[in-house]
Amino acid sequence: MKYRRLGKTDLRVSVIGVGTWQFGGDWGKDFNQKEVDAILNHAKERGINLIDTAECYGPHHMSENFIGDFLSRDRREDWVIASKFGHQWHAKWENAWDVNQIQLQLEESLKALRTDYIDLYQFHSGSDEVFNQDDMWTMLDKQVQAGTIRNLGISIGSNRNIYQTDRASELNAKAIQVVYNRLDQAPEEEVFSSCIKQDLGVLARVPLASGYLSGKYKPGTVFSDNVRKNRDQDEIDMKLKLVEEIKKSEVPEGVNMAQWALAWCLKHPAVSCVIPGCKSVEQVESNANAVELDMVREDHPSAWKS
After folding, report:
1. What is the pTM of this model?
2. Using an 8 Å Cβ cutoff, are 271 and 191 in contact?
3. Beta bridge partners of 51
């Protein structure tokens, strides 16, 4: 495994992380603890140390509970746990941006994760209006001082949200999470340059473009999971046709496309870590093997510091 520092934090994170939205059951598979344990154990064996989750990944903090059960039987200090706030899951996702609601979310996340602290606690895809709540950031800063939050981050909902990105340092946020992949390069326009200027860590989510860049799907594929089944089929087919073209023209012969897609993200100097979701030990292994491709550097050059 290779590691990079996460912006101005004191964290060194594996360039491949584990995204855990799938543990909440929205991606066409219901997980049990044994399956989650196998995935996280293998991730650790391969040197992966970052787990990204959220309060709303499944009802009643389901993803966080799976992770917490695992952590209760492992060494907490070996892991960088990134979670998020601002939503809740009952019958569906709902916004929860009141300061008291966020305080409760944090307490429930700590309980679910079986931990006294969260390494990176991220504002979760909220509007600029809720982002501008001074009392929210004041409360979060007090939690940083108390040690329940080690570092603050911002998971921007729009890949072009330069407003929230530019204000990160002002609010003591030290990392940005953003959708970034070969099919969606929007962060390169403004967001990444702002991150480099501020020395912010970057977590690239959806690095496989919701599975399109895995190389497993052909145009005409109809998805049944909760996330992709309601997307426009013409748009799906258009993206899958583009993936076929990319595979022919850009992916070296004999190279696994999913691994290439992860490495493609990691070659950008702003990116600290990619956080693909994985449903099996085999997918963890494949993701980890992306570091063997020549595109992947070991760490951020010190020259990037502003």
Report:
1. 0.92
2. no
3. 18, 81
Alpha-carbon distance of 211 to 189, in angstroms, equals 24
With respect to residue 211, please indicate whether it lies within any of the assigned structural domains.
yes
pLDDT > 70: percent of the chain: 94
The alpha carbon of 71 is separated from its chain's Cα centroid by a whole number of angstroms, namely 19
SS3 215: coil
d(CA 170, CA 117): 23
For residue 25, pLDDT beyond 80: no
Higher pLDDT, 286 or 238: 286
Task: Return the DSSP state at 28.
Answer: S
Report which secondary-structure segment, H or E, holds 117. Answer: none
Q: Has residue 224 been placed in a domain?
A: no
238 occurs within a structural domain: no
What would the mean pLDDT of 186-211 be, rounded to a whole number? 96
Q: Is residue 82 in some structural domain?
A: yes
Distance CA 158, CA 255 (A): 31
| CATH of residue 57 | 3.20.20.100
User: For residue 210, what are the domain limits?
Assistant: 3-216+256-304
Q: Please tell me the total number of residues recorded for the chain in this structure.
A: 306
Number of domains observed in the structure of the chain: 1
d(CA 65, CA 283): 22
Structure tokens at 304: 């990037």
Contacts with 75 (C-beta within 8 Å, 6 or more apart), sequence order:
none
Neighbour-count burial of 104, counting CB atoms closer than 10 A to its CB (0-12 exposed, 13-18 middle, 19+ buried): middle
Tokens linked to 12? 């060194």
